[in-house]
Design goal:
The complex is a heterodimer of chains A (about 220) and B (about 800).
Chain A: H1 9-15, H2 26-42, E1 46-57, E2 60-63, E3 66-69, H3 71-77, E4 82-89, H4 93-104, H5 106-136, E5 141-142, H6 158-165, H7 167-171, E6 174-175, E7 181-182, E8 186-194
Antiparallel strand pairs in A: 1-2, 1-4, 2-3, 4-8, 5-8, 6-7
Chain B: H1 3-6, E1 12-13, H2 19-24, H3 36-39, H4 41-54, E2 58-60, H5 74-91, E3 99-104, H6 119-135, E4 140-146, H7 149-162, E5 167-171, H8 185-194, E6 199-203, H9 208-221, E7 226-229, E8 236-238, E9 241-243, H10 248-261, E10 265-266, H11 274-284, E11 298-301, E12 306-309, E13 314-320, H12 326-333, H13 337-350, E14 354-357, H14 366-380, E15 385-388, H15 392-401, E16 407-412, H16 415-428, E17 431-435, H17 446-462, E18 470-473, H18 485-500, E19 503-507, H19 518-531, E20 536-539, H20 544-556, H21 564-570, H22 601-607, H23 610-622, H24 627-648, H25 653-673, E21 683-689, H26 697-708, E22 711-715, H27 722-731, E23 736-740, H28 744-760, E24 765-769, H29 775-780, E25 785-786, H30 790-801
Parallel strand pairs in B: 1-10, 2-3, 3-4, 4-5, 5-6, 6-7, 7-10, 13-14, 13-20, 14-15, 15-16, 16-17, 17-18, 18-19, 19-20, 21-22, 21-23, 23-24, 24-25
Antiparallel strand pairs in B: 8-9, 11-12
Helix pairs in contact in B: 4-5, 4-11, 5-6, 6-7, 8-9, 9-10, 10-11, 13-14, 14-15, 15-16, 17-18, 19-20, 20-21, 22-23, 22-24, 22-25, 23-25, 24-25, 25-26, 26-30, 27-28
The chains are: A alpha+beta (about 220), B alpha/beta (about 800).
């Protein structure tokens, strides 16, 4: 399949807002399956990445020619000597699928939207795993990926990512004036690399400050 | 000699990399290369000089990214780049045999509908660069590194509208031969040829070895000179620096292989240097040169699909057309684009290859409607479109923003019509339908029709339109008024094929007008026409009889390998005449899979069974029940029940939406039955996603819910400026405006919109929602209300309108 990775259906259900003991209906499940299979077929994922040495002083992070002030990122990168910046997109097909579905069925549109979110996350996990593996061989251990807009890492740093990685040319992702990415199913992130392995890293929802109030938070 | 005189007649050579060489001279990552035109002119001139000295005939000015999104002084930067390149040429003593290109790269923005840059604005952006370059003395426009055919089209139109210089276009494909936006090599070549460029090619992306399969495909379909400018291999990072692996000798050895395939212009891209190009010229110029040959293919394309006319009959869906359809006329008058789009999507799912688009109605602004529908259709369907109108302004506006090479319906033998339509086809490209009728009327015999067809072909020659891009209509007219009409039509179709080697088209269903059981005779006529060589059939693909005729013909005539198309379509066929799943699926209604045996209207809405909800509503109306009674006693209570469940947390969003979809389908039945009568609405509500924000799924959900509850929704879309919202509110005196924002960064626009509304239209209430929104936030930015979901917005509107 062109996406190169399976879209987990339970994640699609989570993005659609299913919570607690209520089961999705057979109709909903059929819709999810349809959305997942069209996305796995039509996605044209692309990514670009680059490695830089990184230094962290207090709450200040330096890499390439930029300086970032962010307590959360500094904490994430503590002890790191290098970092990998990357940008990834599931491609334009998902946005079109959502638009198309919205004409005839808002239920299916929300399904495609959720499947697209799960698709880009799954694709990022795939790239992330590759990076982890590649650097472990070199004796560097990866920290959880961190994105502009997380915690106090300002979204305005999107511009730095786009400049350093030449993202538009390499992947077709555009950064709008309001710092959003098109195709919408796109991610930019930094992965810290440290010579020391950290035990039990908190990741994803569990490490987010919004997890108590967020409607989409992953909960047991 | 001018470049135009030399292109395609002898070997010509482009330059190599610019950015990669400037980086070696100290250009920092992220520093804009064109700034050096003003800051380090000597370095830029030296680079140009090195390429002229290497023997290049075409050298790029350093203007690739010099557009208004990156520069405030576009004209100055571009003019300086062109001037430096001209000076370099003069110093190299190459004024007589080398050309200075105005180099045009992508804007870095995605065009709408995918991104936020409107097509006509993209044209302006490119025109600004090209005008400055032409005034500074550029000899040609080289549009390169384009990974979106739509953006390339904008640049080409800008070039043709700003100057008379030759235009060369090179695109970037991936290894499978696709553009980033999904377009194929063949479709892109067809579009570019239609736009009348002077040479077509490929650049960047990867090294010459990996370009070979793509070059092969270009050469197979392209009638113009072909340009190949590869990288020096794939870029790699080494110690923070980008390096390329293919050296001058290896590069020119592979390029020699490509030259022997029959290309015409060669050069390099990222990582190639004057040494690469010098070696390339040395290796290739002694080789024999093959001039480009005219290819004969007829292609209609969208941004991603490419339909070839000729190998087997093409189905053109006829349903986007108001003729004789009350409900469609109502949709046009009320600007109900969703209805029109749904008609398109249904036909796509039924097997149409191209969609005819006719949105003409005397009382509407047809040019704006055509532009709007073309724009919206190409954001939801990949099918190519056939623009069907007699309004020349509507035709031009549709063709201009069309993303690909459309079909045009139609021209005829009247001089006045030829003079209006053919220049547009010559400018924008398209496959043109020619009706064989003229000032003398419709010829009754095939002899008469063939004579007019000949006139149309000759007119195409006159305007420089390829005869391959003409499709002649056989003119199907009802057999009920003239018993020989079918014979004349079939003769015409056959003679177009036999006497001109041409393509034909029919509006097939006209044949049965005035007869009972029309689909029977129309379907048989379709089979006969295909057997007589019909290339394109304009039909209703949602009609089972028509598609049965088409699929049977393809299976019988060896145009359906292993009969797979036929087998897949009719695997569930019952001999009682029910056609099974092939054409039954209504667009996107996944939920209708379970048809729900005889649920009541209320039940089918509660359970979200779309197909049954529409059917139950239809049954109720047929039994004589007042539709409004059905809405009030069944539809609304059922929706309310689901809505309350959602508010309590026992029903989740997907189920709420499925019920909403079912209710919408039932409403559609009511609308159809009351297409002529004024509707009763509770009130008008404006919805918009605020400026800077491109997320609209939440807003769309609110829209569906509000419409189901009887509100007339003015949907302004996404990324909407405060002024647009305020103007719309004033124009229709709208009481409630709903604003959506997903990101904290765009809540600012929400605040601005509210401020402007308070100033200009203080009596309008504002309700806000979106992922980051909270009651506290809503209070802070001065909204009247916060809704956490679609149901709350409905409740709020009911409160404001007192219903």
């Amino acid at each position: 399949m062109p996406l190169g990775v399976t879209i987990p259906e339970n994640e699609v259900r989570r993005y659609m807002g299913f919570r607690g003991p209520v089961e999705a209906s057979p109709e909903t499940d059929a819709m999810i399956k349809k959305a997942v299979s069209s996305l796995e077929k039509d996605c044209s994922p692309k990514y670009v990445s680059k490695e830089y040495p990184v230094t962290v002083e207090g709450t200040t992070v330096h890499f390439a020619d930029i300086t970032i002030e962010s307590r959360a990122l500094a904490r994430n990168l503590a002890g790191c000597t290098h970092c990998v910046l990357f940008a990834a997109t599931a491609g334009p097909a998902c946005d079109m699928l959502v638009k198309r579905a919205a004409v005839t069925s808002s239920a299916y549109a929300s399904c495609c939207q959720a499947a697209g979110a799960a698709a880009i996350e799954a694709y990022c996990d795939l790239i992330n795993d590759k990076i982890v593996e590649e650097y472990e061989a070199k004796g560097l251990f990866a920290r959880p990926r961190f994105s502009p807009g997380y915690g106090d890492l300002s979204l305005s740093h999107q511009k730095d990512w786009f400049r350093l990685l030449d993202i538009t040319k390499n992947t077709g992702i555009e950064l709008t004036d309001s710092l959003l990415m098109v195709p919408t199913k796109s991610v930019t992130a930094i992965i810290g690399l440290s010579p020391n392995k950290l035990p039990c890293v908190k990741q994803g929802c569990e490490s987010c400050t919004m997890s108590q109030t967020c409607a989409f938070s992953r909960k047991e | 000699m001018t470049l135009k005189e030399r292109l395609g007649k002898e070997w010509l050579f482009c330059d190599g990399g610019t950015g990669t060489i400037l980086q070696e001279k100290g250009l920092k990552g992220g520093e804009l290369p064109e700034t050096w035109n003003l800051l380090r002119p000597d370095d830029i001139k030296a680079l140009g000089r090195a390429y002229f000295d290497a023997g290049c005939n075409i050298v790029n000015s350093n203007t690739f990214g010099a557009n208004r999104f990156k520069y405030d002084n576009v004209a100055e930067v571009v003019a300086a780049g062109v001037r430096l390149c001209r000076e370099a040429r003069h110093e190299a003593g190459r004024d007589d045999d080398a050309y200075v290109a105005i180099d045009i790269g992508p804007t870095g923005k995605l065009l709408a509908p995918m991104g936020d840059l409107p097509f006509n604005e993209a044209v302006e952006v490119f025109a600004e660069e090209i005008k400055a370059g032409a005034e500074a003395g550029g000899d040609l426009v080289l549009i390169e590194t384009m990974s979106d055919s739509y953006e390339a089209k904008a640049a080409i139109i800008a070039a043709h509208e700003s100057c008379d210089l030759p235009v060369i276009v090179t695109m970037v494909y991936d290894e499978t031969g696709k553009l980033l936006t999904g377009g194929s090599v063949e479709g892109t070549v067809a579009m570019l040829e239609g736009l009348k460029v002077d040479a077509i090619g490929v650049n960047c992306g990867f090294g010459p070895d990996k370009m070979i399969p793509i070059v092969k495909r270009i050469l197979a379909c392209c009638s113009l000179p072909v340009v190949v400018n590869p990288n020096a291999g794939l870029p790699r990072t080494e110690g923070g620096k980008t390096v390329f692996d293919i050296g001058p000798e290896e590069f020119s050895n592979i390029m020699k292989e490509i030259a022997e395939m029959g290309v015409h212009v060669m050069g390099g891209c990222c990582g190639t240097t004057p040494a690469h190009i010098s070696e390339l010229i040395k290796t290739v110029s002694p080789l024999p040169f093959k001039a480009p040959e005219k290819k004969h293919g007829t292609y209609v394309t969208s941004f991603s699909e490419c339909v070839e006319i000729g190998p087997k009959p093409v189905i053109i869906g006829e349903r986007i057309n108001p003729t004789g359809k009350k409900r469609f006329k109502q949709a046009l008058r009320e600007n109900d684009t969703d209805y029109i789009l749904t008609e398109g999507l249904k036909q796509e799912e039924s097997g149409a290859h191209i969609l005819d688009v006719n949105v003409g109605l005397p009382e509407i602004d047809e040019p704006s409607m055509m532009e709007n529908i073309v724009f919206k259709l190409q954001s939801v369907t990949t099918l190519p479109l056939q623009l069907d109108t007699t309004d020349i302004e509507a035709l031009e506006r549709g063709m201009r923003i069309y993303n690909g090479k459309p079909m045009i319906n139609s021209v005829n033998g009247k001089r006045e019509v030829i003079e209006a339509v053919m220049p547009l086809v010559a400018k924008y490209g398209g496959v043109l339908v020619g009706l064989p009728l003229d000032e003398a009327g419709i010829p009754e015999t095939s002899d008469g029709r063939i004579a007019v067809a000949k006139k149309i072909y000759e007119a195409a020659d006159e305007y420089g339109i390829s005869r391959d891009d003409i499709v002649i209509d056989g003119l199907a007219m009802t057999v009920s008024s003239d018993p020989t009409s079918a014979i004349a039509t079939l003769d015409t179709v056959r003679r177009i094929r036999d006497e001109f080697g041409g393509h034909s088209i029919l509006g097939v269903s006209n044949i049965s007008f005035g007869l009972p059981a029309r689909e029977l005779i129309t379907a048989h006529f379709l089979t006969m026409a295909m057997q007589n060589g019909l290339s394109c059939a304009i039909i209703n693909p949602c009609n089972d009889h028509m598609m049965a005729s088409y699929r049977s013909y393809c299976a019988l005539m060896n145009k359906d390998p292993q009969c797979l198309g036929f087998i897949n379509a009719y695997s569930e066929y019952k001999s009682d005449g029910t056609f099974g799943g092939a054409t039954a699926g209504a667009a996107g209604t996944a939920a209708s899979a379970s048809t729900g045996a005889k649920l009541s209207l209320a039940e089918s809405i509660e359970r979200g069974v779309t197909g049954r909800a529409a059917e139950a509503m239809q049954e109720g109306i047929s039994e004589g029940t007042d539709p409004l009674e059905l809405i009030n006693s069944e539809l609304i209570p059922a929706l309310d029940k689901v809505g309350q469940g959602f508010e309590k947390g026992t029903v989740f969003l997907p189920q709420l939406l499925m019920s909403a979809d079912a209710a919408k389908a039932a409403f559609e039945v009511v609308k159809k039955s009351m297409a002529d009568k004024p509707r009763q609405v509770k009130g008008k509500v404006i919805l918009a996603t605020v400026k800077g924000d491109i997320h609209d799924i939440g807003k769309n959900i609110v829209k569906v819910m509000l419409e189901n509850y009887g509100y007339d929704v003015i949907d302004l879309g996404k990324d909407v400026a405060p002024e647009t919202i305020v103007d719309a509110a004033i124009k229709d005196d709208v009481k409630v405006v709903g604003l959506s924002a997903l990101m904290t960064t765009t809540v600012v626009s929400m605040e601005e919109t509210i401020k402007l509304l308070r100033e200009k239209k203080p009596d309008t209430k504002v309700v806000v929602g979106g992922a980051v929104m909270t009651q506290e936030y809503a209070d802070k930015i001065g909204a009247d209300a916060y809704s956490k979901d679609a149901m709350q917005t409905v409740r709020y509107c009911d409160e404001v309108f007192g219903v």
